[in-house]
């Protein structure tokens, strides 16, 4: 019996497409994306940044291809990384064809912006021939002039009409491997546009608040906008757009999904803001712990609370709990139960070791269950 129905999010039903080997939409996990900010023509720098994003957990990475030098470099880039690459194309249809031939898993292109019907057919043929999906990317800042003149300003209705127009062009060319974004820097505008788009089609949606700002302000805006959409079940793949290191976009993206219980990666640290009751330096301890535990990808929870007011209660709901106690001696909990006590000096080292051991146990249990399942599926040999 589910005693926590308030935690349930019913995701919007959408068709599923693939970006390389990564499924998007349907019942697939919500994927986290980012985008490189290196010159794509500098293959070495771009590969290094993509690899850093892979380590952070990115499922899909987008690179801009504004010129022929970029699409030439794309072939070597794709061959050196493991995540599928989305080639960001805006107006030049030849760049899209070159990117498909170079191994891009997806083309980010609005078919209505690349010219004649013949050019659209060429791009669609290249996408089909090379197994590329296409992301239609509508942005409030670059809506078609006709829509702006008719609606007077960027609005949800204009953005959705733009998206549906681009979809229609691809469908008329017998192409349905489509995902769509409908972004704005204004949270209200973006959320309203996505809500209307979610009702208007069943294609998977790539959601984001575009040009959200710097690390702190952009994280806040993105959390509000994406949180509202995800809570309503809208969104199949996300990007947090920050004027910061792209790795931070991936970290924030996973934190948003983790907070909503939609996807778990790494250690979820529950910690108090600290006050005069704290029995150790909570803020510094958590800061160091988060850095030291960044390599853990196994989903698990760790509570770090400064005193006994909320500490024991939080510990009952986490895999490992740590609560500050008097005279420099603190309580450690395992699976919600008091396990042992700990002195001030080695708090971080001790908790890091415990988390690493717990992660290893969880991984071993998962591998064991997988092996048992495989053995159970194997054909049985009858005794002679």
TrEMBL record:
GO terms for biological process: isopentenyl diphosphate biosynthetic process, methylerythritol 4-phosphate pathway; terpenoid biosynthetic process. The lineage of its organism: Bacteria, Pseudomonadati, Pseudomonadota, Alphaproteobacteria, Rhodospirillales. Keywords: 4Fe-4S, Iron, Iron-sulfur, Isoprene biosynthesis, Metal-binding, Oxidoreductase. Residues 362-384 are annotated as: Disordered. Belongs to the IspG family. Converts 2C-methyl-D-erythritol 2,4-cyclodiphosphate (ME-2,4cPP) into 1-hydroxy-2-methyl-2-(E)-butenyl 4-diphosphate. Binds 1 [4Fe-4S] cluster. [4Fe-4S] cluster binds at residues 272, 275, 307, 314. Residues 14-253 form the IspG TIM-barrel domain. Its cofactor is [4Fe-4S] cluster. Its EC number is 1.17.7.3. Pathway: Isoprenoid biosynthesis; isopentenyl diphosphate biosynthesis via DXP pathway; isopentenyl diphosphate from 1-deoxy-D-xylulose 5-phosphate: step 5/6. This is 4-hydroxy-3-methylbut-2-en-1-yl diphosphate synthase (flavodoxin). Residues 268-357 form the IspG C-terminal domain. It catalyses: (2E)-4-hydroxy-3-methylbut-2-enyl diphosphate + oxidized [flavodoxin] + H2O + 2 H(+) = 2-C-methyl-D-erythritol 2,4-cyclic diphosphate + reduced [flavodoxin]. It is an enzyme of class 1 (oxidoreductase). Signal peptide: none annotated. PANTHER family: 4-HYDROXY-3-METHYLBUT-2-EN-1-YL DIPHOSPHATE SYNTHASE, 4-HYDROXY-3-METHYLBUT-2-EN-1-YL DIPHOSPHATE SYNTHASE (FERREDOXIN), CHLOROPLASTIC. One of its GO terms (molecular function) is 4 iron, 4 sulfur cluster binding.
């Amino acid at each position: 019996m589910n005693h926590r129905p308030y935690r349930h999010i019913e995701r919007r039903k959408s068709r599923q497409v693939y970006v390389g080997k990564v499924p998007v939409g349907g019942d697939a996990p919500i994927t986290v994306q980012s985008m490189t900010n290196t010159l794509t023509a500098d293959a070495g720098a771009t590969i290094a940044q993509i690899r850093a994003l892979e380590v952070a957990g990115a499922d899909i990475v987008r690179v801009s291809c504004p010129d022929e030098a970029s699409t030439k470099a794309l072939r070597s880039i794709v061959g050196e990384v493991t995540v599928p690459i989305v080639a960001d194309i805006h107006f030049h249809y030849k760049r899209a064809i070159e990117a498909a031939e170079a191994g891009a898993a997806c083309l980010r292109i609005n078919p209505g912006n690349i010219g004649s019907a013949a050019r659209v057919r060429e791009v669609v043929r290249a996408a089909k021939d090379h197994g590329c999906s296409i992301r239609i990317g509508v942005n409030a800042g670059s809506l078609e002039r006709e829509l702006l003149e008719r609606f007077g300003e960027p609005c949800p209705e204009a953005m959705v009409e733009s998206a549906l127009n681009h979809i229609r062009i691809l469908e008329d060319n017998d192409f349905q491997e489509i995902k769509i974004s409908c972004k704005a820097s204004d949270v209200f505008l973006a959320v309203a546009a996505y809500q209307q788009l979610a009702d208007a089609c069943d294609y998977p949606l790539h959601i984001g608040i575009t040009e959200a700002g710097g690390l702190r302000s952009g994280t806040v805006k993105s959390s509000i906008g994406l949180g509202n959409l995800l809570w309503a079940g809208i969104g199949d793949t996300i990007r947090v757009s920050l004027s910061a290191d792209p790795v931070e976009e991936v970290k924030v993206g996973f934190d948003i999904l983790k907070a909503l219980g939609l996807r778990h990666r790494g250690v979820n640290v529950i910690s108090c803001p600290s006050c005069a009751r704290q029995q150790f330096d909570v803020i510094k301890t958590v800061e160091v712990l988060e850095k030291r535990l960044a390599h853990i990808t196994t989903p698990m929870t760790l509570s770090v609370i400064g005193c006994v007011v909320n500490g024991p209660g939080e510990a009952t709901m986490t895999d490992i709990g740590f609560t500050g106690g008097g005279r420099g001696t603190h309580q450690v909990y395992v699976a919600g139960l008091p396990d042992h006590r700990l002195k001030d000096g080695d708090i971080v080292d001790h908790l890091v070791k415990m988390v690493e051991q717990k992660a290893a146990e969880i991984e071993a249990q998962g591998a064991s269950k997988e092996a048992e399942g495989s053995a159970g599926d194997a054909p049985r040999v009858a005794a002679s």
